[in-house]
Design a protein that fits this description.
Elements lengths: L1 E5 L3 H12 L3 E5 L3 H10 L1 E5 L4 E3 L2 E3 L8 E6 L6 H7 L4 E9 L6 H9 L4 E6 L2 E6 L2 E6 L3 E5 L6 H13 L3 E4 L2 H22 L10 H20 L9 H11 L6 H7 L10 H11 L4 H15 L2
Parallel strand pairs: 1-2, 1-6, 2-5, 3-10, 6-7, 7-8, 11-12
Antiparallel strand pairs: 3-4, 8-11, 9-10
Helix pairs in contact: 3-4, 6-7, 6-8, 6-9, 6-11, 7-8, 7-10, 10-11
Length: 304
Amino acid sequence: MRIAVVGAGAMGCIFGGTMSEAGHEVTLIDVWAEHVNALNARGLRLTGVSGDRTIPVHAVTSPAGLPVQDVVIVFVKSAFTETAVRQAAALIGPETTVLTLQNGLGNADKIGAIVGAEKVVAGVTSHGGTMLGPGEVRHAGRGETVLGELRGGLTPRLERLAAAFTAAGLEARAVENVDSLVWSKLLVNVGINAVTAVLRVANGELPKHEATRELVRLAVEEGARVAAAKGIKLIHADPVANCLKVAELTGPNLSSMHQDVRAKRRTEVDVINGAIVAEGEKLGIPTPVNKVLTNLIKAIEATY
């Protein structure tokens, strides 16, 4: 397959590099010129749970001039979704699948509004990664990737995409209900991202301590109540236990929000904990813990 990865951060590199290693024609697209130059000059240095190696990759700072792709994987931060997809419009033909593996709520709908909902597949993944520097990524945790059509249902292209990921070593499966998929991953991020960013700890610290486990439980339970009120059936019967399990499985990893705070970048808190607050307000469901976590992250951003 011809694959373009829009947003070659840690996760974009893990997926793009692994698919390139499996023989697919992959282009990594990222605005960070130093990173792109390092990838082209030295290859992607990938270390961690999937093994330490250097993968030859092709990277560019702009999609201009690239041919139409079979798959476009969107990995940019949520605040840049619409801009990035519009800039990549020339890569998207009538048969192109546009896959979002981003964090947070609302990305698939934003993409669908631009390219057409029929082209969009939403996915969530339990893989975790950390940028170590230009051209260098640590694969800090691995797990299943789950894919669903934005319009729902199982389709041949969805099953082909899941099979291609699995064959490359990125275990994946297709599901019929994309809402349950996105909300189930959202609750993992709700429990991990803001707490690790505020405390400046790796994911693996959360299951170890009574106080951190309690923070995770309170935040995730609020999100689960909102999901239930919306009629969304979560994938996991116990979303709190699942969140803590993911934190343990990705133990050495620094969450994306933690990495953003350390680098003094804008975070995605508005589409994670802030999304629980916004949806809760619509339904009249109190979400005080997520409100506090959202405000704490915004306060940290304000002091950069």
